[in-house]
């Protein structure tokens, strides 16, 4: 029988570099409405983007406050749809299984997995503030016996080898070296376990990272990887892709709507849209088995 996950940790994050300290400081200080206002709708806080056709009628709402409310709700719906797509590729899982959420943010992804499968989940973030917030949301929902968040480094978690049936990164791979990341996922996953990521990557056929990709890197203090690097690093670390899907076209409606959400814009929307449209940036789903 699979054991319950370890208790939430509050120990200092190990092996944290100067760069990781900067990333942690960024997310500890982050209070962006595009993350917080959307999550307030149902206490599911997603730190990622959305996919699917957007309901453009929300932009026609004449009442200014109601228009903001409807746009916020529609963006949240698209973000939740993305989380459900990722979670749908983790299975089959049972309530006894453990899953690992690497770079969990404020915790929405682990909640989605638990709601779908009833499984245990350990989420990891290098932001102490995010971990505390996410654990409070789990307590609020009454799932804290199974869903726990830890202030740890996803490259060096200290969790039990082979303890997880599935693991994932949702738009968090660009903060770390892929060789180190996939080595840790391979260590944590049992043989035959499933790894899933949804990520933005730059298109190698375009050449080097485009100006738009560089702007995104600067905005989020990250380092977006080329597409080929994912498959090279996976092959090196016993992760064999079984499904790859280009979600670029599916995410453009989200960004088009977000660009028109005056109360939520961050200034990076044009960079995303231009990069997607000129082909220099792609939004990929990669599903891999641990051999």
Strand order of the largest sheet: 3-2-1-4-5-7-6
The proportion of residues forming helix, as a percent range, comes to 40-55%
Query: Taking all residues together, what is the mean pLDDT?
Result: 94
Oligomeric state as shown: single chain
What gyration radius follows from the Cα positions, in whole Å?
18 Å
The assigned structural class equals alpha/beta
Strand segment count = 7
Question: What percentage of amino acids are in beta strands?
Answer: 15-25%
Give the topology string: H per helix, E per strand.
HHHEHEHEEHEHHEHHE
Q: DSSP helix count?
A: 10
Distance between the termini: 22 Å
Report the sheet with the most strands, covering strand number, pairing sense and barrel closure.
Answer: 7 strands, mixed
Parts with pLDDT < 50 across at least 5 consecutive residues:
1-8
Architecture blueprint of SSEs:
Layout: H1 18-29, H2 33-39, H3 64-88, E1 98-102, H4 108-117, E2 120-125, H5 128-141, E3 147-151, E4 164-170, H6 178-188, E5 189-202, H7 211-220, H8 227-236, E6 239-246, H9 248-259, H10 269-278, E7 281-290
Give a written overview of the molecule:
The protein has 291 residues and is α/β, with parallel strands linked by helices. It has helices at 18-29, 33-39, 64-88, 108-117, 128-141, 178-188, 211-220, 227-236, 248-259, 269-278; strands at 98-102, 120-125, 147-151, 164-170, 189-202, 239-246, 281-290. Strands 3-2-1-4-5-7-6 form a seven-stranded mixed β-sheet, sandwiched between helices. β2 (120-125), α5 (128-141) and β3 form a beta-alpha-beta unit. α2 packs across α3 (64-88), α6 packs across α8 (227-236) and α9 runs antiparallel to α10. The longest helix is centred in the N-terminal third of the chain and has 25 residues, at 64-88. It is globular and about 55 Å long. The model is unreliable at 1-8 (pLDDT under 50).
